[in-house]
Design brief:
Length: about 325
């Protein structure tokens, strides 16, 4: 199989953004069912945990062959553990390694991981260099505009490019903004003019059409939160009625059961089921039932009842 390359990937690159607790293999496969050209990223996974052999993290990186190209996203701050993690990911057959330098979680930032690395650029560059030298896989970085402004974005991106990164994804908010305010991409358009590696946009993109309108001179975009409960964000058009969505929702549930076993899957699918019906009129009437499903047949029955509701055509 031909080795994956960000430079040679079809443009615009359209990717499912990594979201911890959501973008497991079952959800990724569900989105890929809607758009076979998607580039997929795993949930972010601790390089330290992989280095120390945490079995649950190995399971977290499980994927199906249909997911290629599939990129493993890892986080941490220690070059030694990143090297171990990178080699492990390469041995598992991943198509690339993405280093998380954008997560704004207080717990992650307190540990000096994620977006905290924007305040320690030399450490960030060292991590990229270590991974790039330890593996033949393409290395990418996902980050934010900056800590409290985008003033250092070009300098930072040039540093990771020089260290060996072959792509950068930028969420259009600073750490200080969290998920408040609207994402802005003007700094990304300027960044693209200043570096030689592909640039992807992320943040507040809710559909293929929205991404196409915002991509401009960039190389592609990621869709994240807008895809939860709506993998059709990656389609050219939404299904006409809720009943047309049901087959994919059930496919998602079956993927999850096969991946994690019925007991765990039926607990984890609940948050997705609530998201799938969130936009429907009077969705609250079904929420209490969906958060307590105990079998696939029960899911089928509830979805069938919703489908037969006249207002949901």
């Amino acid at each position: 199989m031909k080795r994956f390359s960000w430079k040679n990937a079809p443009k615009p690159i359209i990717a499912l953004a990594p979201m911890d607790g959501y973008t497991d293999s079952a959800f990724r496969r569900t989105c890929k069912s809607v758009n076979k050209n998607l580039v997929l990223f795993t949930e972010f996974t601790s390089a330290d945990g992989l280095h120390h052999g945490a079995a649950r993290l190995h399971n977290k990186l499980a994927y199906h062959k249909s997911e290629h190209p599939i990129i493993a996203q890892i986080f941490g701050k220690n070059a030694e553990t990143f090297i171990t993690a990178a080699r492990y990911c390469e041995s598992r057959g991943f198509d690339g390694i993405d280093i998380n330098m954008g997560c704004p979680s207080k717990k992650v930032v307190k540990s000096e991981h994620g977006v905290a690395l924007r305040n320690k650029p030399e450490r960030a560059f060292k991590l990229v260099r270590a991974v790039a030298q330890a593996t033949e896989l393409p290395v990418s970085v996902k980050t934010r505009l900056g800590w409290d402004s985008a003033d250092d974005l070009v300098e930072f991106a040039r540093g990771i490019e020089k260290a060996g990164a072959s792509l950068i994804t930028v969420h259009g908010r600073t750490y200080a903004q969290g998920f408040g305010d609207r994402a802005t991409f003007e700094p990304l358009y300027e960044l693209k003019k200043a570096i030689g590696i592909p640039v992807l946009a992320n943040g507040d993109i809710d559909s293929i059409a929205d991404g196409a309108a915002k991509v401009k001179n960039l190389d592609g975009f990621m869709i994240g939160r807008a895809s939860v409960g709506n993998p059709w964000a990656f389609a050219d058009r939404q299904p006409a009625a809720f009943r047309d969505k049901v087959p994919l929702i059930l496919k998602h549930a079956k993927f999850l059961i096969k991946l994690k076993g019925e007991k765990i899957a039926l607990l984890e699918i609940r948050k997705h089921l609530v998201a799938y019906v969130k936009a429907l009129p009077n969705a609250s009437a079904y929420r209490s039932k969906l958060v307590a499903v105990a079998s696939l047949s029960q899911i089928c029955a509830i979805l069938k009842k919703i489908s037969n509701t006249k207002n949901y055509d």
